[in-house]
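Posting this for the archive.
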Amino acid sequence: MADIELADAVAAIRDELLTATARGAGQDVAFKVGPVELEFTVELRADAKVKSGFKAWVVSADAEAGVTRGRTHRVAVTLTPQRPDGGDLLIAGNANRSGGPGDLSGHVED
């Protein structure tokens, strides 16, 4: 597994929520997105480009076995998604779209 920065992992969750919102626009049933709880094992690494001098990298379960315990940390983050105007993020469907979830290529593994 390639290294991924913690910020990129959180951005991927944001992108998936936005995709779900776009796919669900205009439907009669909407879901209010509640808190999203994420838990990662991260490794702090020195980075001369970063003001604080360190970056947090998500460690996969496979890589975690090869990394010394003193260098990894468990991080739990709770995010409460909302729209830019401060309103609740809603996931709903498009009434004009044909049935089914649409194209899931890239989202569902065979």
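The helical segments are 6-23, 61-64. The longest strand covers residues 36-46.
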